[in-house]
Amino acid sequence: MTFRIRKFAGLTVSHLVLAALSLACIIPFLWMISTSLKTKAAMWEFPPKWIPKNPLWHNYHDAFTLAPFGTYITNTLTLEILTIAGQVISCTLIAYGFSRFRFRGRDTLFFLMLATMLIPEQVTMIPTFLFYSKLEWIDTYLPLVVPAFFGNAFYVFLMRQFLLTIPKDLDEAAKIDGANEFQILWKVLVPILRPSLTIIVVYTFTGVYNDFLSPLIYLNSPEKFTLAIGLANFVSSRSTEWNLLMAASTVILLPLLVIYYMAQKNLIGGIASLGIKG
Amino acid sequence: MANTIMSKAERREERFGYLFISPWIIGFIAFAAFPIVASLLISFMKWDIYQAPSWVGWDNFNHLFHDKLFYKSMRVTLVYSAFAIPLGLIFGLALSLLLNMNIRGINTYRTLFYLPSVISGVAIAMVWKWIFNSDYGLLNYMLSLIGIHGPKWLEDPNWILTTYIIMSLWGIGGSAIIFLGGLQNIPGHLYEAAKIDGAKVMQRFSKITLPLLTPTLFFQLLMGIIGSFQVFTSAFIMNGRGGSASGGGPENEGLFYMLYLYQKAFKSFDMGYASAMAWVGGLISFVLAIIVYKSQGRWVFYDADDNNGKGRTA
């Protein structure tokens, strides 16, 4: 009996702790939405109210007419599509090469690829910038998109680990049916690889979406700005209009939240599986 | 394989292997090997991108070691890492123990805790700036409810670094999920056996859980050190332009290494100086990573009956 009571008390405490911590995780978002609906006067109220008396939906309209966020959205989506296409195609091919073929130096090259994850970004950043400026690629999307077509060590690693768990019998069977190397990859493996492809798509999406430094360095013309740069620009012009800034932030964070919600199972599972390799 | 005559099929396989990984090989040369060599050479040059570069020997490094802001940015980054990395690991581990429980709604909790790891960048940095606003921000309002008069988080040079450390804890869910993977990999029979032997909860944690999590801990520590010189976006947005000309916040107490490097490379266009900075920073994190890597024999526990994968922590 006492054991049951103790167990019940333990469960309640755990739930309370978890609930309190989850609240801490989402409070910034609630505060953001709350502020985005406030009038200027309500914004400077102290103590602040969580639910504004007269929610000012017009803030969203204002934020979007004061800065060309529509253009920023189009630009960001263009970059997203090109980058995701590049990563998915290149990482699939590279992981296929590393996991399904025997060739001299394979393990050394694979190790070298993993080692590149340790190269600090600041070291390669400047020569890469100078290289692109020689090619006259500054203020174009090329520096942001082209590297995606040459793979990413982390994604290739994830995908290779996944490919190694797929029995080679499947390839052999397709080979007997007359399929060549490309057909095996496309018809047999890619359909099975969907979970790890989802991880790559979502990671690339959030990576491009959140990236600030590269577009900051490479893009100069306002009409080419991404959402991240556009928002930062909007901040410096309206530094105290928190209601407008929060309205813009809310709209910008929304796609990320939706994508995260849709892909959560894949993402959390994929990350947790990394611990095994740790 | 190297010295025997390869069959036609083997040669075909090898050709296809190289063909499929060729994008990575090209990328490795263009985006890793070439820039690393070039970066080292540029660090010995004066190059403002408008004029032709000239060789200046150790000049950049000499200036660097007499530059007060360089030391400042180094100190800011190291102090930040010295608190943010261990705190993140300890709280992340504690959280993962909670998330490993078999209770109702646990998947919802996991989803919520991982959320901050997906959200970074300008928008959320703005939200934080508003939360930390000393007069009207949410944090000081909440502190006032329990009778504490909150500090001027982002405007006070004595507090700004603490502000960034507190903010970094919002992301512990990401580390907790990685620990969770490690926890779920611990065979249940170990706990059963320990229970039969009469081991208490704390003993089971210190004798089973913690040792078997050390590979995960090691991996995260290494990643944390490598990432420690990369803090940029949040500081760029939250320091504000008003604080100081370098954008380093009040008395440059928020001048992270990457921020200063960015100013030198892309505001002053002093490519040689910035490259020297990149190398010094890179070497320091590399040395720290090597120390951690070398120390793993003393504290990282690799399970004897599971050699595949665990031993190879690249």
From TrEMBL, chain A:
Name of this chain's protein: Multiple sugar transport system permease protein/sn-glycerol 3-phosphate transport system permease protein
A Pfam cross-reference name: BPD_transp_1
Q: What InterPro entries does the record tag this protein with?
A: MetI-like, MetI-like_sf
GO CC term, one of those recorded? plasma membrane
| GO BP, sorted A to Z | transmembrane transport
Which keywords accompany this UniProt record? Cell membrane, Membrane, Sugar transport, Transmembrane, Transmembrane helix, Transport
All copies of domain ABC transmembrane type-1, residue ranges: 73-263
Protein's organism: Paenibacillus taihuensis
Q: Could you tell me which PROSITE patterns the record lists for this protein?
A: ABC_TM1, PROKAR_LIPOPROTEIN
Q: Which family does it belong to?
A: Belongs to the binding-protein-dependent transport system permease family.
Q: Which SUPFAM superfamilies match?
A: MetI-like
Q: Which residues cross the membrane?
A: 77-98, 110-132, 144-163, 184-205, 244-263
Cellular localization per UniProt: Cell membrane
Predominant place of localization: membrane
The membrane topology of this protein is:
Multi-pass membrane protein
UniProtKB/TrEMBL annotation, chain B:
Q: Which residues cross the membrane?
A: 21-45, 78-99, 111-132, 159-180, 210-232, 271-293
Q: Provide the primary localization.
A: membrane
Q: Where is the ABC transmembrane type-1 domain?
A: 74-292
The places in or outside the cell where this protein is found are: Cell membrane
**Gene Ontology biological process terms from the UniProt entry:** transmembrane transport
Kindly state which keywords UniProt assigns to this record, in alphabetical order: Cell membrane, Membrane, Sugar transport, Transmembrane, Transmembrane helix, Transport
Q: How does it sit in the membrane?
A: Multi-pass membrane protein
Source taxon at top rank: Bacteria
What family does the Swiss-Prot or TrEMBL record give for this protein? Belongs to the binding-protein-dependent transport system permease family.
Write down what this protein is called: Multiple sugar transport system permease protein
Lineage of the species this protein comes from = Bacteria, Bacillati, Bacillota, Bacilli, Bacillales
